[in-house]
Amino acid sequence: MTALRMPEPDAGVFARRAEIVRRLGEIVPGEGVIADARGLAPYESDGVTVYAQAPLVVVLPETVEQVSRVLAYCHQEGIKVVPRGAGTSLSGGALPLADGVLMSMMKFNRVLDIDFPNRCAVVQPGVTNLGITRAVEHEGFYYAPDPSSQIACSIGGNVAENSGGVHCLKYGLTTNNVLGVEMVLMDGTVLRIGGKHLDSPGYDLMGLIVGSEGLLGVVTEVTVRILRAPETARAVLVGFNSSEAGGQTVADIIAAGIIPGGMEMMDRPAIHAAEDFVHAGYPRDAEALLIVELDGPAAEVSHLIERVAEIARGNGCVDLRVSNSDAERLVFWAGRKAAFPAVGRISPDYLCMDGTIPRKELPHVLARMRAMGEHYGLRCANVFHAGDGNLHPLILFDANVPGELDKAEAFGADILRLCVEVGGCLTGEHGVGVEKRDLMPAMFDEIDLAHQIRVKCAFDPKQLLNPGKVFPQLHRCAELGRLHVQRGALPHPDIPRF
């Protein structure tokens, strides 16, 4: 287990544990509170299992009133709260605190309303990503964002991390497909932001909520945009002799003004792992594999497939196949969707990184990553959303070998610094959590971080919601509110002070 600096536990909260469990049991009766060691074990970590910590207690509310009362009680008593969805987070965003209440939202699992005329659905946060599509597909609709974990990940977690997926290149991330939320603040206040209407007056608070990683409030309801399924969708499977050639093809496709429904890339280790796992017919002799999906009217799709094929051949592709049926298209995607578990079969452990770069930098970054792997003596399988430059390098290691976890983490940190260096950012869809928290200064200076913390202070002045995540040093709100006075003189004395 790797060392991780987290907020110092409050001994006073530990001393009151029995009372806290009792009070929570009154608010959420029946099986709504888990306090025994065996019951807490499944909640010790999220998808980043190298970081683990048993929570003080787990609470599973079923109503908005219960969420509000639990948060109000914790706010009054100064008890930290960590919201949790399905626990598939890959940044440690749902890592519990030893002195904190873990609030699981998975009993909020109902589809509340489907409004086909207005092309939206209202769901609770525990509904799975794929569950939304399943609820509307009988009328020819679907929910566009589709993370690889869509069969398990919850829409509440998607909102927290601003999740993407294969189709986010053309149809946007979660933030582009969420119209409104109901959210409970740390003091128990219930807010409703946005809704079915196209736009709302005032500040764009939805832009703050989506991607806020559980630091601002607990989402209890989500209104999402649903889309008509395209008339036609076909996929092109292209193999290359180098990752650089594949990366150049991605850049050339976008430069040509073509926006595919999805465009994903895998390198040789990932190709072999996925093929052994799924048997999708991937070319084993290719160093890089590109999957490009075109959707829309049949005539347009046929034309765009020819253009994509021409670009791929111009970059020296060694294998090119076009799906001739929807079943074949899904087979092409099956290996990509199962790539993460497939890689798990070829290595005892791996770290799944998440950084984003400008598309034109793909060939350069892939070459630099290969050199890094040689430096650290670790293998790296690359599986990523090539169209929007969102990289997912899978760093392979064995935690039972002394020092390998440390090397894997250092390798991952270097990749993320490289992303920032070439004009990208630390995350694309997994969030910052604890995994990238201490790398935030590589992208933001103290002033940037202080302004972000001020936003948190506006929603959570006591800083009880998910502390220890995102910010490498969380200043107290009173500290951030102080006015600097030099030699007894206020700056800009002509400005009225309140």
TrEMBL record:
A single Gene Ontology MF term assigned here is: FAD binding
Annotated ranges, domain FAD-binding PCMH-type: 51-229
Q: List required co-factors.
A: FAD
Q: Does the keyword Oxidoreductase apply?
A: yes
- Keywords of the record: FAD, Flavoprotein, Oxidoreductase
One of the Pfam families matching this protein, by short name: FAD-oxidase_C
Family matches, as PROSITE patterns: FAD_PCMH
Xref: InterPro entries: FAD-bd_oxidored_4_C, FAD-bd_PCMH, FAD-bd_PCMH-like_sf, FAD-bd_PCMH_sub2, FAD-linked_Oxase-like_C, FAD-linked_OxidoTrans_Type4, Oxid_FAD_bind_N, Vanillyl_alc_oxidase_C-sub2
Where on the tree of life does the source sit, at the highest rank? Bacteria
The family database entries (Gene3D superfamilies) matched by this protein are listed as: 3.30.465.10, 3.30.70.2740, Vanillyl-alcohol Oxidase, Chain A, domain 4
Tell me the PANTHER family matching this sequence. Answer: GLYCOLATE OXIDASE SUBUNIT GLCD (PTHR42934:SF1)
Protein name as annotated: Glycolate oxidase subunit GlcD
This protein's species is: Prosthecodimorpha hirschii
Lineage of this protein's species? Bacteria, Pseudomonadati, Pseudomonadota, Alphaproteobacteria, Hyphomicrobiales
